Amino acid sequence: MAEKDSYQKLIDHHNKWVFGAPGPNLLRELFEIIFTPEEAELLSKIPFMPYKANYLSKKLKIPVEELTKKLDDFAQRGVVFRYQEGKRVRYAHGDLILMFLRTPWWTGIDDELNTKLAPLVNKYYEEEFGPEFMGQTTIAMRAVPVNQTVEDTRTIMPYDDVVKHLDHFEYYSVSHCGCRRRHNIDPAYEKSKYPTETCLHFDALGRYAVENNISREITKEEVKEILKQAADAGLVHGLENSIDGGVTICNCDPDYCLYLDSMLKMPDPVPKGLQKSNYIREIDEEKCIKCGLCAKVCPIEALEFIKDEKELIFHAEKCMGCGVCAYKCPKGAINMKHREGEADIPESGMEFGKRWLTERGREPAKFIQENSL
């Protein structure tokens, strides 16, 4: 049997990770664009779990200085994640989400490589990766209502409060939205009407992005201003789907967000969207003037306005509880009330990871063993 080439080895390596490597032919085409055969060979040996360079050097039999230089280069290209805690530095192979859907677009630069990548990445997500990524019960991100729209703000739990979530962090950064940027570059799509510099990253992820020149550092007050501007634009606040909320806040649009777009355009059973928040729309009929603006701004078509009859139809089963309709209502006729019961939100990132694995038929302990050196 002929020996596998380096690109096939890299595909096989990703196949061991959480999402697998669906669509290997198109994935290979993407790998061939961004990696030389030698780079693909090395990356096929870099684990997805974080390790120090000197440990990787011994395992891979590559001099530590030579390996560190290559790993740092990969980090600057958004391919390898570089963790730094004090003087301790660890490296981990980035997954397909980081590599194709996030870091290439964070800079907001339309260079030759991104111009070539954008149409292929969009095709890969829509035809191959998206159905696998979105096709399980547990969703990666959850909707969080705009604070001012909640009926009684005293009842908001900390994990439902996007502003209070900022108190967990010491370092803040902003980058351009990967979803909107890659669609803006792709000539097959119209340019988004929404702002793009709205992706917020904190602490380790924020430092990594700034140190590798793919994001810029900002203050906590600037984060709050970006959140306000996002709400003004009708974007949906999204946190990583765990009680601790993770280290990213997305501000999602209905046109190109990989969560909302898939909900509206992908066939069943894929459409999941963002996980619903603990809140749902409530309207004061006496204040409502039946202008239809709420239906126009709803990102997932949970509201339907019949103009001739001045009738507003609410599809409660679709409502994510994002609060966009309430925030934009000119008469203050809408607020967000707490749903019955509580949303099933994983307690931590670790619990979230276990759910993702078990839903995909993977045993967590075995998975960790298979992806460790």
SSE map:
Elements: H1 6-15, H2 24-34, H3 37-43, E1 51-52, H4 53-60, H5 64-76, E2 80-85, E3 88-93, H6 96-106, H7 112-134, E4 141-143, E5 172-175, H8 178-185, E6 199-202, H9 203-211, E7 216-218, H10 220-233, E8 236-240, E9 248-252, H11 260-265, E10 279-283, H12 293-297, E11 303-306, E12 311-314, H13 324-328, E13 334-338, H14 349-359, H15 364-370
Antiparallel strand pairs: 1-3, 2-3, 4-8, 5-6, 5-7, 6-9, 8-9, 10-13, 11-12
Helix pairs in contact: 1-2, 1-3, 2-7, 4-5, 6-8
Helix content: 25-40%
Q: Given the helix and strand composition, which structural class is it?
A: alpha+beta
Order of helices and strands: HHHEHHEEHHEEHEHEHEEHEHEEHEHH
Strand content: 15-25%
Brief summary:
The chain is of the alpha+beta class and about 375 residues long.
Describe the structure.
There is one protein chain. The chain has 373 residues and is of the alpha+beta class. It has a domain at 13-123: Arc Repressor Mutant, subunit A (Orthogonal Bundle). 40% of the residues lie in helices and 15% in strands. The protein has helices at 6-15, 24-34, 37-43, 53-60, 64-76, 96-106, 112-134, 178-185, 203-211, 220-233, 260-265, 293-297, 324-328, 349-359, 364-370; strands spanning 51-52, 80-85, 88-93, 141-143, 172-175, 199-202, 216-218, 236-240, 248-252, 279-283, 303-306, 311-314, 334-338. Strands 4-8-9-6-5-7 form a six-stranded antiparallel beta sheet. It has a three-stranded antiparallel beta sheet with strand order 1-3-2. It has a two-stranded antiparallel ribbon with strand order 10-13. The longest helix is centred in the first third of the chain and has 23 residues, at 112-134. The radius of gyration is 22 Å and the shape is elongated.
